[in-house]
Specification:
Length: about 475
């Protein structure tokens, strides 16, 4: 491809990108293809000869796009959002163009220093107490794994890295029954082992019960186990429950345990003064992660990891072979020593672009729109006679279910499962679910970058229509 062909193609793609982001509603929000559809549509062997870009682009539109679920579609209310925005995409294009490896300061000084600047901005925006140092990771999963590796080494005086066995160091990591699966994964990957993970009971609002935590820690100490880390969540994935950070932090402080905060989704809301209460006690934390790639209009991937004592990172992860030695060593941050992977993308650029282009106030404004739309939606659902709210909704996730009185309660789980299935095959709305105390619960997140009141109302309408449709069909019990 010549520079001129690149220019021509790029202009064409940018036109397509602008149209796509302006109106993703043209597409079904959840991909409707079946397993194997794309596998069968693509040639099994790579082309020997160059193919025209126009053909590749046509195939992208005709073959690939139908297999994409549209995360930027305003009807995307499943899981948590993975938002994008125009400024983020602009920066990402430049990042791809530069194709820089940002593993060491020397390999692209601006990438390291910009990362330091934007992470300090984020710390200020979210009101983080002083003493934290930031680094961008690919995901909250990696961030948490790194936190637990540091905790493990701190708890064992750096012996685990050497000896590598939990027989000698019976470590315990604590979360709650609502803690994200990435913590269990990190516990396993860190060699602590599934047996070293305690999921503490939650209170009725699904937040971790600090008394139960204290009891578990005392019991483990009595049994000669080594409490290693506690992971508290600000905004659990199931219901956005907010663990009591200060109380948990004080327990950690008393017992000398690493305190990690997983605010992957809800951390963005700390930018709002009216949500700072969620972070009360953050000064007691050793590390914290939140994902601008979820609810801060910065396209995946961009996970903000903050840690107090960066020596742990370097002690745990720095391996310095001769070919990576640089003259600036010791004088600058080499973020590959703060991350699992050596090669690092230049992710700071899009974060910088997003924060400057929106302005902190612009970000706040968007978050407030989402939060107020969620309040309205929650109010509406509360007025439905055959639905109930299943968990407190402190942010923009609503947990609810239908409870049709004309059906036996024993069938409500199945009924809601059917609602979800039909909603998701409508092409206009995408929700996901969780189970709360065994009850099948629908999750609706209002956080799409440009979601409007009209779109939220049509989502609610779709839900009602689907529910009524199922109820209007012959009831299987009567058929039997
Ligand atoms: C989404 C989420 C994660 C996982 O985030 P990744 O960046 O995809 O690894 C972890 N914890 C919580 C609370 C989440 O909501």
């Amino acid at each position: 491809m010549s520079p001129d062909e690149f220019r021509k193609n790029a202009h064409k793609l940018v036109d397509w990108m602008a149209d796509y982001l302006a109106d993703p509603e043209k597409y079904p929000v959840k991909s409707q293809i079946k397993p194997g559809d794309l596998l069968n549509a693509l040639p099994p062997h790579p082309p020997e000869k160059s193919e025209p870009d126009s053909q590749i682009f046509t195939d992208f539109r005709e073959l690939i796009l139908p297999g994409i679920s549209h995360w930027q579609h305003p009807g995307f209310m499943a899981y948590f959002p993975a938002n994008s925005s125009y400024p983020s995409v602009l920066a990402e294009m430049l990042t791809a163009t530069l194709g820089a490896q940002c593993m060491l300061w020397e390999t692209s000084p601006a990438a390291t220093e910009l990362e330091q600047v934007v992470m300090n901005w984020l710390a200020e925006m979210t009101g983080l107490p002083s003493g934290f140092h930031g680094v961008i990771q690919d995901s909250a999963s990696s961030s948490t794994l790194i936190a637990l590796l540091c905790a493990r080494e701190k708890a064992t005086g750096y012996k685990f890295n050497e000896d590598g066995s939990n027989q000698i160091h019976p470590l315990v990591v604590y979360g709650s029954t609502q803690t994200h699966s990435s913590i269990e994964k990190a516990v396993k990957l860190a060699g602590i082992g599934r047996a070293g993970y305690r999921q503490i009971a939650v209170r009725p609002d699904f937040s971790l019960d600090p008394e139960a935590l204290e009891t578990a820690i005392r019991e483990d100490i009595r049994n000669r186990k080594i409490p290693c880390a506690v992971v508290a969540t600000i905004g659990t994935t199931g219901t956005t429950a907010i663990d009591p950070v200060r109380e948990i932090g004080e327990i950690c402080r008393r017992h000398g345990i690493w305190f990690h905060i997983d605010a992957a989704f809800a951390g963005t809301a700390l930018i709002l003064p009216e949500f700072r209460w969620m972070g009360d006690g953050l000064e007691l934390a050793d590390s914290l992660v939140f994902n601008p790639h979820k609810w801060m209009f910065t396209n995946f991937d961009c996970s903000a990891f903050f840690i107090k004592d960066t020596r742990h990172l370097v002690n745990v992860m720095s391996v310095l072979p001769e070919y990576l030695r640089t003259p600036s060593h010791g004088k600058v941050n080499n973020f590959s020593d703060w991350s699992i992977q050596l090669g690092r993308r230049f992710r700071a650029l899009k974060l910088w672009w997003v924060i400057r282009s929106f302005g902190v106030d612009g970000i706040r404004e968007k978050l407030r729109v989402h939060l107020s739309l969620a309040r309205q939606a929650e109010q509406t659902i509360r007025t439905w006679s055959d639905a109930e709210i299943m968990a407190p909704s402190p942010l923009n996730l609503i947990c609810f279910r239908f409870c049709p009185k004309v059906r036996p309660e024993s069938e409500w789980n199945e009924f809601n499962e059917e609602v979800l299935k039909r909603v998701n095959s409508s092409g206009n709305l995408y929700l996901s679910h969780t189970r709360l105390n065994g009850i099948y619960t629908l999750r609706m997140v209002i956080g799409q970058t440009n979601v409007t009141e009209g779109q939220v109302n049509s989502a609610l309408e779709i839900l009602l229509n689907v529910k009524n449709q199922i109820l209007s069909e012959p009831y299987k019990q009567e058929l039997k």
